[in-house]
Amino acid sequence: MKTPGFWYQKSSGLEKILSPLSDLYTKIGRRHREKSQPRKLSIPVICVGNIVSGGS
């Protein structure tokens, strides 16, 4: 399998601009997971499917 050419291209600097937002998003997600509690439901729950990232 051949690696994509963009892996070796010089970065545009956008990564440096978006990096703080990525860190903030990670911290918010972590805090949400720490504070959330699972719920006990009175009826059975069936989950069908999976998580899709980037479309299908």
Concise structural overview:
Keywords: Kinase, Transferase. By secondary structure, this protein is mainly α. 39% of the residues lie in helices and 0% in strands.
Rg calc:
19 Å
Structural class: mainly alpha
User: Helix amount, in percent?
Assistant: 25-40%
Spell out the helices and strands N to C.
H
Count up the helices: 1
Through-space gap between termini: 22 Å
Q: How would you state the average pLDDT, rounded?
A: 88
How much of the sequence lies in strands comes to under 5%
Based on CA inertia axes, which overall geometry fits?
A: flat
- Strand tally is 0
Unreliable segments of 5+ consecutive residues: none
Main sheet: strands, sense, barrel: none
Q: How would you describe this structure to a colleague?
A:
This protein has one helix and no strands. The protein has one helix spanning 14-35. 0% of the residues are buried. It comes from Micavibrio aeruginosavorus.
